[in-house]
Amino acid sequence: MVAATGLMNSKYAVAIALAAIFSAAVAVPTQAFAAEVQAEIVPGASTKTNDAYSPNPIEIKEGDTVIWTNRDGALHTVTSGTSPEPDGIFGMRDATNPVLVPPSRTFSFTFTEEGEYPYFCTLHPAMNGLVKVSEAGGPAMQEITATLDGNSYKVTAKSSAVQVSSVTIEPNTSVEVTVSGTGEVELTLPKAMIDGINKIEAGDQEIAFQSVGSTDSDSTIKFTVPSGVSEVEIYGAMVVPEFGVIAALILAASLVAVIGFARFKGTSLGFGRF
Ligand SMILES: [Cu+2]
């Protein structure tokens, strides 16, 4: 280790480049943050009441889309309001005509505001359901695992606006977080992976962060992802080093030493002949 330290610095760029290539290879495609939630009009719905739509209630977040599939053999509707009065929020083509959903077809609606949305079937007014939309501000929890040398590090992200798709360790340097969306995110990072967090960069810009918690094993930070940013670099006093790279560098160091020694011998031998 001690012998390799000098070489480590000169080969540092190589290690970082390797890490960058590796991170590019594992980049995960970003997904839309809003969810599509499946629901159905159950078989035999015509004779059912609050069990005609399933699940009931449907619990979602602001921005989510509910897709109802008609699994029954009859026509039905998914019409907002309290039976038998449509309120016009969804499921109506115009003031008087509901959207008919034939067997095997779907009806979908995107809920952008929190609240409770009762709905029913205009053809079978006993059929009724409820969609409960909670504030997107109730942050979603995401768990992402970063791996290095067979060790995995579990990172938790909490945000109502930002989706974290991958966390990549650049050994000895930083932790790179791939994000989509703009807004505040709270990250809990294992200290075994990064400790003494001291700087966050997005692109070439430093962004402000707050330490909001610390335990023996984890630290939690909070920052705002600016618009147009897809990668955030977190720097710390300690970032886990890559064992494989260190081993390769030590091997390279000893090879260089051996070759150097052999050349020296060869040269001196050559001189000896003249
Ligand atoms: Cu119906």
What would you say the CATH architecture of the largest domain is?
Answer: Sandwich
Q: Provide the domain count.
A: 2
Structural class: alpha+beta
Most strands sheet: 5 strands, mixed
If you had to describe this structure to a student in words, what would you say it looks like?
The chain is an alpha+beta fold and 274 residues long. It has helices at 5-10, 12-26, 243-273, and strands at residues 36-41, 53-54, 58-61, 65-70, 76-77, 79-82, 85-86, 100-101, 106-110, 115-120, 128-134, 140-148, 151-159, 163-170, 174-180, 183-190, 194-202, 205-206, 209-214, 218-225, 231-239. The strands form five sheets. It has a five-stranded mixed sheet, with no helix packed on it. A hairpin with a 2-residue loop joins strand 12 and strand 13. The model is unreliable at 1-6, 16-32 and 266-274 (pLDDT under 50). The structure holds copper (II) ion. Residues 45-46, 76, 121, 123-124, 127 line the site of copper (II) ion.
Keywords summarizing the entry:
274 residues, alpha+beta, Chondroitinase Ac, Chain A, domain 3, Immunoglobulin-like, 2 domains, five-stranded mixed beta sheet, five-stranded antiparallel beta sheet, 44% strand, disordered N terminus, binds copper (II) ion
